């Protein structure tokens, strides 16, 4: 009994040191001992997210702690349980962080309180700006707490951004500071199709790097010894491939740190320079749909006159289109089945690849009439027979990085209408149609016109009723655009004639 009591007596102080390894698993509620303070945007704050089945994953397990963008500024803290800092027991704090979207980079600060877990008490800054390269992969960050040995502290992860995207935190660990400290904040930058630069922070001067395709067995990868600086070039690499790079500190003799690691993906092989020759053909009445749709990228084109109408400097897919006889054309993008992607930006250019210039009103990144999910660009007064080059830039999924190019694109005559008929009040059937197409609109139909894929009118009927039957039996098999007019309102529908 005395031995048991002595063991418990010796163990009791250790139990108060609050060592933990928090992966936020098991539930989507805030773990016991943790605190969230929402001091900014009321709609969004730190929350546990289950990534099961999502486009991106947690660092470990299925859950992570996340904070999403808000229209107004955050001032939100995620706070650890109290840590009674003891040398060789819990004098280091580490976590894995991720900012999901490179166009809207989220950052956080890491702060420390020596008193209480309220926002005003976090007066010590361990890192003013934690900014991992944005994307699907996490970066590990570690901080030395030896200056606080003997004190009880709280660690606060603070977000103060406005209208960015999402920051994720996972696998927060309170542990002993090792004798040989591993490199901190390992990242991959300057990523191309064949190379990348590995970076880290450390007070040491000697390191070992090993890298290979994700999933490789350590010991079989490429080894690089670094004795100057805290970065090294990795090449040659395969394009469009996920790599894992490890780096550890060499503290002399046989004393080495644990490995730190990072995953990154190389870029696809650049598309050919001449987008004019490799753009995908698009014709009036045609619809392209693929999941994903792959095409040519502006990449290394020699053109220096392409204006940018988005925050992206590079369009994902290019199409070529011959302007119809009336000089009017509308380009529309819609959501592809199964895609999580959010929206597109479309732009139109004329000329040669060396001197592409935007046509008037050539850019649209939102469909103002909200009748389609993505974007619509209506162009009028063009030169019949000239070739336009249509550039499409694809936003990534609002749920995380996704494969770009998941959209539908179609072209039709702008003069045929822009679709302002109230959709819930309008119906038509059957489609495909063999003989008679039935049309119904609560506000009344004044006229119906049918156009072939070349934009030529092949039928017209005056109605002035709420319902109408359109006899299409004399038309050849194929796709037709039916323009329904109700006063000043129009509706364009696509009908397949069998």
From TrEMBL:
Pfam families found in the cross-reference section: Cleaved_Adhesin, Por_Secre_tail
Residue span, Fibronectin type-III domain: 182-272
Keywords, ordered alphabetically: Signal
Stored PROSITE patterns: FN3
InterPro entries: Cleaved_adhesin (IPR011628), FN3_dom (IPR003961), FN3_sf (IPR036116), Ig-like_fold (IPR013783), Secre_tail (IPR026444)
Domain of life (superkingdom): Bacteria
First and last residue of the signal peptide: 1-23
Keyword Signal assigned: yes
Name listed for the protein in its UniProt record: Putative secreted protein (Por secretion system target)
Species whose genome carries this gene: Flavobacterium endophyticum
């Amino acid at each position: 009994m005395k031995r048991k009591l002595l063991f418990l007596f010796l163990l009791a102080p250790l139990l108060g040191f609050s060592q933990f390894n928090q992966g936020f698993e098991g539930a989507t509620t805030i773990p016991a001992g943790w605190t969230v303070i929402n001091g900014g945007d009321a709609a969004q704050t730190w929350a546990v997210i289950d990534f099961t089945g999502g486009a991106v994953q947690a660092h470990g397990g299925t859950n992570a702690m996340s904070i999403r963008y808000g229209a107004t500024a955050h001032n939100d803290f995620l706070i650890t349980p109290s840590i009674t800092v003891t040398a060789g027991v819990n004098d280091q704090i580490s976590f894995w962080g991720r900012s999901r979207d490179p166009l809207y980079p989220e950052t956080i600060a890491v702060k420390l309180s020596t008193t209480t877990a309220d926002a005003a008490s976090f007066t010590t800054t361990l890192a003013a700006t934690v900014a991992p390269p944005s994307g699907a992969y996490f970066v590990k960050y570690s901080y030395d707490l030896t200056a606080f040995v003997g004190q009880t502290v709280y660690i606060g992860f603070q977000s103060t951004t406005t209208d960015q995207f999402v920051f994720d935190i996972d696998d927060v660990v309170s542990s002993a500071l090792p004798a040989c400290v591993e490199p901190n904040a390992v990242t991959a930058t300057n990523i191309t199709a064949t190379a990348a630069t590995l970076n880290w922070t450390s007070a040491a001067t000697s390191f070992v790097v090993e890298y290979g395709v994700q999933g490789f067995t350590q010991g079989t990868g490429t080894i690089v010894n670094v004795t100057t600086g805290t970065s090294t070039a990795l090449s040659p690499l395969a394009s469009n491939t996920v790599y894992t790079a490890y780096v550890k500190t060499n503290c002399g003799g046989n004393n080495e740190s644990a490995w730190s690691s990072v995953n990154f993906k190389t870029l696809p092989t650049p598309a050919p320079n001449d987008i004019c020759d490799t753009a995908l053909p698009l014709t009036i009445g045609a619809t392209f749909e693929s999941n994903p749709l792959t095409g040519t990228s502006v990449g290394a084109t020699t053109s220096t006159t392409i204006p940018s109408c988005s925050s992206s400097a590079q369009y994902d897919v290019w199409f070529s289109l011959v302007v119809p006889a009336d000089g009017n054309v509308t380009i529309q993008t819609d959501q592809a089945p199964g895609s999580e992607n959010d929206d597109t930006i479309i732009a139109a250019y004329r000329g040669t690849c060396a001197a592409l210039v935007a046509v008037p009103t050539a850019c649209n990144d939102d469909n103002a009439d909200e009748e389609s999910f993505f974007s619509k660009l209506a162009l009028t007064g063009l030169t019949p027979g000239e070739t336009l080059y249509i550039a499409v830039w694809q936003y990534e999924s609002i749920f995380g990085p996704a494969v770009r190019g998941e959209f539908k694109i179609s072209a039709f005559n702008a003069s045929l209408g822009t679709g302002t008929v109230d959709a819930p009040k309008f119906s038509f059937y059957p489609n495909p149609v063999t003989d008679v197409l039935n049309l119904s609109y609560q506000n009344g139909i004044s006229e119906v016109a049918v156009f072939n894929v070349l934009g030529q009118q092949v039928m017209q009927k005056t109605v002035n009723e709420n319902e109408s039957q359109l006899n299409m039996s004399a038309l050849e098999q194929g796709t037709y655009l039916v323009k329904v007019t109700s006063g000043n309102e129009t509706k364009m529908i696509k009908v397949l004639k069998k």
